[in-house]
Amino acid sequence: MQAIEPIRITAGNFAAYGRYYNLRGEDGARLADGRTFVSRQRISGEPLKIGATAVAGGPFVSSKMERHTLSEELLICGDDEMVLTVADSDPEGAPRSPDVRAFIMRPGDAVVLGRGIWHDANHGLHRDTTYFFLIPQRDFVASEVKWTEIVPEAVPVRWETGGRGEPEAAAPESGEPQAAVPETQTRPGAPEADRSLNGADGTPFSTYGRLVRVLEGPGLAGDTGWRSWLEEAPALVEGCYLGVGFPEDDSRDGARGGGRTAISRDSVVECGRTAISRGSAAECGRTAISRDSAVECGRDGARQILCACGAVKLTVMLRGRPESVYTVRLSQGDYALLEENVCYKVLREPGTPGYYYILSPKGLM
Predict the structure, then answer these.
(1) What is the mean pLDDT of residues 119-125?
(2) Is the pTM here over 0.85, yes or no?
(3) In whole angstroms, what is the distance from residue 310 CA to residue 314 CA?
């Protein structure tokens, strides 16, 4: 079989396989801080399980695929560009090599695969990476997951590489961070104690929700350089909107800069046209900012998921309880399931271009 080359995904060239979302462009709304983008429409309205997959980078051979005949699957690009390989061979009983196509997704991209669309595990374009996926609880059953060989032969997926054998990286769009590389102290496998900044009083993260270190636990191993993890129960029961945030660096003195929003712990805080008093929490649009930790609150009654790409700091606080602040470092592929009464703030590790995804059933976060 002659090798195929991946192409940059667009809504038009992916239409036969599902729905494509570009959160930074026509499918996303830019929020007031200038660094957060969210979907304008609900991406899914069903109870969803969440999972993550760690994959190898570089050219590969696609030999097997799976499909879900009863459900759609949401795939969210992780911390670096990745290659999604699909085939529309329905109603064939196996994916056919002439039907295989490969698409390049970049940070901020998401797709919803249509029912019956064959797909391989994704692969990193430039290097090893991690991506996130969500599957509806209602239709998805283990018996659906059946990896089937591509017929009549496997399909090599190849692209041009640089002089040292490394794939040539595309130039980032204006205002976008480069791909994140976790620092040593936030590497996968680092002990939890080394990544918790507060909470020294023994308060467990379970007070705020569930913290998942996906690269540290057991997972399902694939034979083409990937490993997956999947939550057993629905993480979101009302479906979701999807957002991507590019936070500012943490600062030494607690001041926070975020595009048009400047948050300063020791003086009056400005947020757009609203001045927020230091002495108490205040509302600014849909954001509540706490005096001592600068914590953003999601909308009332919404359980939310935060997915880390690269190295970020997640600060959480129980609504109305400023003494309950807890900060934890998240590495590539980690995610947190935050309960309804939890406020949060995300900051990049100094000197890194980490970012995060947020999934919420309540629309604009």
Answers:
(1) 94
(2) no
(3) 12
